[in-house]
Every structure is written in C-alpha cells, then in structure tokens.
Design goal:
Blueprint: E1 3-11, H1 28-40, E2 47-48, E3 57-67, H2 73-83, E4 88-95, E5 108-116, E6 130-131, H3 138-144, E7 150-152, E8 169-178, E9 182-189, H4 196-208, H5 217-223, E10 238-244
Parallel strand pairs: 3-10, 5-6
Antiparallel strand pairs: 1-3, 1-4, 2-3, 5-9, 5-10, 7-8, 8-9
Helix pairs in contact: 1-2, 3-4
Amino acid sequence: MPRNLKIVVAYDGGGFHGWQIQPQLPTIQGELQRVLEQIEGRPVAVAGSGRTDAGVHALAQVASFRLENPIPETNLRKAMNRLLPPAIRVLQVEQAPGEFHARFSAKSKLYEYRIWRPEICPPMLYRYVHHHPYPLEMAAMTAAAPLFEGTRDFQALAAADDDLAPGPRTIFSSRLDNGTDLLCYRVRGTGFLRHMVRNMVGTLLEVGKSNLRPDEIPALLEAGDRSRLGPTVAAKGLFLVQVGY
C-alpha cells in the first residue's frame, strides 16, 4: 500500500512561476513532481498547502503525496535534494496518517513581508526585500496593522483575477515589527486570497505615506472597496514562514 508522505520545503521563488504547475514553465510543484516521478517510476501528484505566486519564497511550505517506493524517509529527502535545483530544498520527510492532506488539513498559514528602509539596498538582499527608502509614519502603520484581524471575506484585498473560493477567512494576528533597517510585517490566518498579503502591505504603506488613515481601513474592508486600498507590492519580499495543522 502506498505511503502518505508529508514534506517540508524551502525555496527561493525568484526563478519560478509560482507553486502551481504550468505547461512549459518552471514551477515548484512541477519540479517536485519531476523528481518524484524519477524516484517512483511513474507520475506522482504533489499537493501543496496552498499556492504561492511567482517570485514568492517559502521557508517552510508543506506538501503531501503518496509513494509506493519503499525508500526510507531520510534517503528520500537526500534523493530529492540531489535531483532538485539548488533553489528548492526538502527540509523534512515523514510518513503522515492516511487522511492527511497538505492543503485540506491545514489550519493556518503564517506569512512575512520584508521591507528594507535604508537608502542603499545591499545586492545580497535585493532578491528578498521590497526596497522603500522613503519616510514613513511608523506609528500610524503599527496602529493600522491589527485592523486586518477578524473574520471577513476580504474581497477588497483580492487580486482582480483571483479564482480561489470566496467566503470568509479569519486573520488571527497582524503585526508590524519596526527594526532598525528591516521592517517586517507578519500575518497569520486560516487562508489567503491571491495577492492578499501583498495588498495588505501596500495598504500599510499608503498609511505610512499619509495617503490613508488607519480608521478608514475597517469600512473599506467591509465595503469591498479595492480601489481605495493600497497597491500590490512586489512578490520578492514575501515569505511563507509556517503552515499550522
């Protein structure tokens, strides 16, 4: 009987067209399925906890699949890393209960968005931060961040072409950490619409630039008014940090 396996994967999303497999384009799911087919000798369907957009990174994405090959979990991790490109690393492999599914069993996801504040962005950081070397009203941004918390449909923060299932989602925590040079926004929720976190950050930046007051955000969210909220910031500053089960 095939084993149901759970893996934790880290990746630099800069060279990929997102998680979801696409014909003739490099994707994270596509690379994982490519190497597992070599190991298994037949196609293997890999389910991720959720889709990350093109350019988005992951510190701990979770995926699951079924494998008939009896290779031990430790050896499977080594074999996958040997066959995968260096931008994708399998951190953990473990056998999961038969009913486990990386997406449908997930209870929460934690994302982090990183903004570099100084005038000069080091070349080593450029691929992993949004560079914003301009004045920001940090007190207003810090006050605005928790206003995203709660249960709503969040359509005001969705991409125009979002095809994810509509309905309420819950944001458990939404916080801004103002470091000396690096500004980090962390948000944990049951699930996220396409571009949702990047639109949250764009909205916080509009608050920081005094183009939007924090007290305007709740009403705009309830009204589903995408036009009044902030623009979609660059994908490269976004990281999937943790998936909760």
